[in-house]
Amino acid sequence: QVQLVESGGGLVQPGGSLRLSCAASGTIFSRSAGGWYRQAPGKERDFVAFISSGGSTIYADSVKGRFTISRDNAKNTVYLQMNSLKAEDTAVYYCNVRSDVVMKAHMLTGYWGQGTQVTVSS
To answer: Is 21 exposed, middle or buried (0-12, 13-18, 19+ CB in 10 A)?
Structure first.
């Protein structure tokens, strides 16, 4: 059974930084793509970033230049470093693991974590 456990969310002031982590178990993580999505209250779940098994990355336009996705296959973990945070980044952030061949932002597929709340407010 695949399990994804997120951590690192919290309350941060505008302009601040947070790093989210997602530890995976029960799957061959090194052969899978990792990703992050987010969902604000009353809105749909939106794509944030992907990292392929080979390390290629894709970002939503809204986070380019501010967020960095990375992975540590030895730890079965995918990270999301978030800098220059804005109020509009406030959402529940969900970790996702899927096959490289379906690394399409609009496809809500694969395995999901339980979500971690990120709140950006002064």
So the answer is: middle
CB-facing half-sphere around the CA of 70: CA atoms within 13 A? 9
Query: Mean pLDDT, to the nearest integer, of 88-110?
Result: 93
Strands 77-82 and 18-25: antiparallel
Q: Which helix (H) or strand (E) holds 82?
A: strand 77-82
Structural element, H or E, at residue 96: strand 91-98
Q: Which of 90, 95, 94, 91 is nearest to 13 (CA)?
A: 90
Is the model's pLDDT at 26 over the cut of 90?
A: no
Residue among 103, 119, 94, 110 nearest 22 (CA): 94
d(CA 9, CA 19): 8
Q: Which residue has the tokens 């002064």?
A: 122
Say if CB 50 and CB 105 are below 8 A apart: yes
